[in-house]
Amino acid sequence: MTGPVATGALDGEVHVWRATLDRGRDVVEELHGLLSSDERARAARFRFRRDRDRYVVGRGLLRRLLAGYLGIDPGAVAFRYGAHDKPELDGTAPAFNVSHSGPVALFAFVNAGEIGVDVELEREQPDHEQIAERFFSPAERDALRALPAALRSHGFLACWTRKEAFVKARGDGLSLALDSFDVSLEPDAPPALLRTAWSRDEARRWRLVDLSDPACGYVASLAVHSGAGPLVSREAP
Question: Whole-model pTM?
């Protein structure tokens, strides 16, 4: 369990791995052994054991996946952190991003360019109208209100995950206002970045992908540069 995952080469593809973070005690302890001292210190700060274990599993799996791409030991993977605390490899491909919601985690990798992923468990969002009013653009709010009532909660999550994936890919953190760009959210429309307030050309540079899985109960989105290759989805061991 503690060795690298047999990832294969990226070869221009975009790889997305799905994993459950709820693992047995023996797996958690094995993966804990892969972490750096600062990661172990962060794990120790979680108040609840379930949250601590999920962090350990997520970080340990990330190390095993990256080790497979790099051809090194998982414990030797070294991270640096950008201005918004986004982990990156120290001058080495691939680019990667991680998101989790409850026990579900998604790990996304690409050889060149930025990448972002976001996942949310699908559940009723009783306050979605208030959140949309605060964070969504006027066009997105209009599109959400135009949906049948039964579809609005899903439409909200589709919009939210697409916006979060894009922000994460750009690495802007909280400095990029969520209402300064538009994404599609209608169920019959392909996922897309439609407009940004700062550039007429920005929307053409990005590809948004719907990674949702209704059977597993989550909504998810991926943002990657439009020139990236085909998407390959896999299950993490």
Answer: 0.96
